[in-house]
Amino acid sequence: xxxxxxxxxxxxxxxxxxxxxxxxxxxxxxxxxxxxxxxxxxxxxxxxxxxxxxxxxxxxxxxxxxxxxxxxxxxxxxxxxxxxxxxxxxxxxxxxxxxxxxxxxxxxxxxxxxxxxxxxxxxxxxxxxxxxxxxxxxxxxxxxxxxxxxxxxxxxxxxxxxxxxxxxxxxxxxxxxxxxxxxxxxxxxxxxxxxxxxxxxxxxxxxxxxxxxxxxxxxxxxxxxxxxxxxxxxxxxxxxxxxxxxxxxxxxxxxxxxxxxxxxxxxxxxxxxxxxxxxxxxxxxxxxxxxxxxxxxxxxxxxxxxxxxxxxxxxxxxxxxxxxxxxxxxxxxxxxxxxxxxxxxxxxxxxxxxxxxxxxxx
Length: 362
Prior knowledge:
The chain has helices at residues 2-9, 22-51, 64-69, 78-92, 98-124, 132-153, 156-159, 178-196, 204-221, 224-229, 241-259, 268-285, 289-295, 297-316, 326-332, 337-357; strands at residues 161-163, 171-173. It is an all-alpha fold. It has one domain (2-357). Helix 4 (78-92) packs antiparallel against helix 5 and helix 8 packs across helix 14. The two termini are 39 Å apart.
């Protein structure tokens, strides 16, 4: 909105020219979303507290201390995050850019799935939401539709190829198989963040680290000079996604103020599914799907720990970890919550730096 308005008034007020720059609008989007979440956070938290009798239902099979320490904390905090992201993105992004609408659309739709799941948990006073089968079906429909729109908005020659990090000119043409592959990236990213969201502040900081990395990647991918210099695929219009990444970063910072231990609110599936799907979608548009495995490596570890635990128990009747996801394993080993959270943040930061190194090491 402001991008369009500044273009209309630039001949009258020349200082508005500064808002033509993506870097300026990214910083503005970050500050705007952060301010919105910070200011409206208490109102929404108090409102959700009034609606939820016991707060987020705690897993009975989870760490025992959670039943006492985290009882009464409301969930659905993702609504605050989505408010900041959407308002800031609509204010500062170029709304004629199709990629902007695709990312926002997928983010909201995955957030809606998460919201309904959170709603059912709160309503039934149980940690079980609606059926996993129905959830995955809805996610598949949204993700496949989103990837199809991405292909139509760009070039099949670009999006039909899979690019490998660390290799200069190695690409694999997978054609229309990219459609299910891209959907898998979005769905996996959303659910991996969801699995990571188990301790106060554990998921939101790695999310901010990941979107900061992809904000930079989006900027250089959408810049023909930088992309040519780094020998990465140029995607026209991808740079505009830096504004959305900035909005997510700002909203994450604002949310962390209230999610820091002891958390005043949990993001719930509303936040984790929406944020994870946003990261996955941006990774697809910027053609750095495999780099997401590195930058989002912490989320991958959490998801893999659950998969390994389930397969091992079904085949051998034994568990590899004391409890899954991975952060619960370390809780059961006696690590304090703050120790786990901070060490996982460090791991996430290191993995993000390694992921960004792939831009140069080709």
